[in-house]
């Protein structure tokens, strides 16, 4: 009888151990990521929808079991565009055991570059500043750099200008984010791009750009290339329209044609500017919801699933947030499919292998994501859009800058 009782007890214990193991397996593993960005404060018009895109896509991944029973827990915190707060958030995320990090601003990405190297952690920032990847092994730009976008836009100006030499002004953000691409545009001119940069304007908080616009026009400027965020561009476009300085057709003589890089445009700009945005040209690597397609259908479906308002749903910044979450998820999935432990090292390696036949095509972008040990810009393709009839429409096919290859 005693032997039977011992046998029964042993069987019961084995059953309990098996049940506990099965339960733990069914629950899956949790992979921690961190995102620090400006949900409020300066540039929050971009950061707020960006954070929603990240949050919604990871929710979708978990709910639809993209990783099986495993899940992603991405901690999202507001840093109000303050580098010291970003650094504190990053350090706390490390204590939480994150395996990949999603950063935001140019200043904090540059400021934490050494920390990323020390921690050997892959970083996907919302800043596409070319200088982010200088002397860095762990920063991966999601799309073409601001420099590549500004130079590509400059090439478009030259190719479509009627006359001897296109005269342009640069309207830029007063920061490293704004200044970075100007030097590369100047290098492109030195390398033979037939364009004269008449003036570089670092905008302030002025509510009236009348004097500046009149000065540019008096110097023969026909094109104003913008690299900043949407709000100051909206103010400038309104002032130009009020003064009847805005070109009705591209390159109209005696008028100003306005063009801009990534954070200066999108549906959010039209919401701020209204009819005064008509004829504005803009480069972006993301699909826009104003151009119907499978990718934008999926973006809108995701926004609807999580009850986002139209403003967020139609923002290219929402798409940009989705995109970094897609890339992070894909890296985890690929490592998991190989039976590898999900950690900082394996995810870093998976990003470096994301090229050639292994490149990744998210539904949010104009082209595929491709990384390697020597290529740190994910999506190389750029689309030029223009506001026509109150919405952004594609101009031609996606492009790549020719002069960036000459000056790198």
Key phrases:
13 strands; 2 domains; Rossmann fold; 17% strand; alpha/beta; 45% helix; four-stranded parallel sheet; seven-stranded mixed sheet; 408 residues
Characterise this structure.
The chain has 2 domains: 30-144 and 291-375, Response regulator (Rossmann fold); 147-284 and 384-407, Response regulator (Rossmann fold, 3-Layer(aba) Sandwich). Helix 2 (44-63) links the parallel strand 1 and strand 2. It has helices spanning 2-27, 44-63, 83-96, 106-111, 113-119, 146-160, 176-190, 210-218, 230-242, 267-273, 294-305, 310-313, 316-337, 344-352, 403-407; strands spanning 30-37, 71-78, 100-102, 123-124, 141-143, 166-172, 195-202, 223-227, 257-260, 281-284, 377-379, 382-388, 391-399. The strands form 3 sheets. It has a 7-stranded mixed beta sheet, covered by helices on one side. It has a 4-stranded parallel beta sheet with strand order 2-1-3-4, sandwiched between helices. It has 408 residues and is α/β, with parallel strands linked by helices.
Q: State the helicity in percent bands.
A: 40-55%
The biggest beta sheet reads:
7 strands, mixed
Oligomer: single chain
| Number of self-contained structural domains | 2
Q: What name goes with the CATH superfamily of the largest domain? A: Response regulator
Counted beta strands: 13
At CATH level 2, the architecture of the largest domain is 3-Layer(aba) Sandwich
Indicate the low-confidence ranges by residue numbers: 4-25
Q: State which percent range the strand residues make up.
A: 15-25%
Arithmetic mean of pLDDT: 92
Tally of separate helices: 15
- Coarse shape: globular
Cα(first) to Cα(last) distance is 84 Å
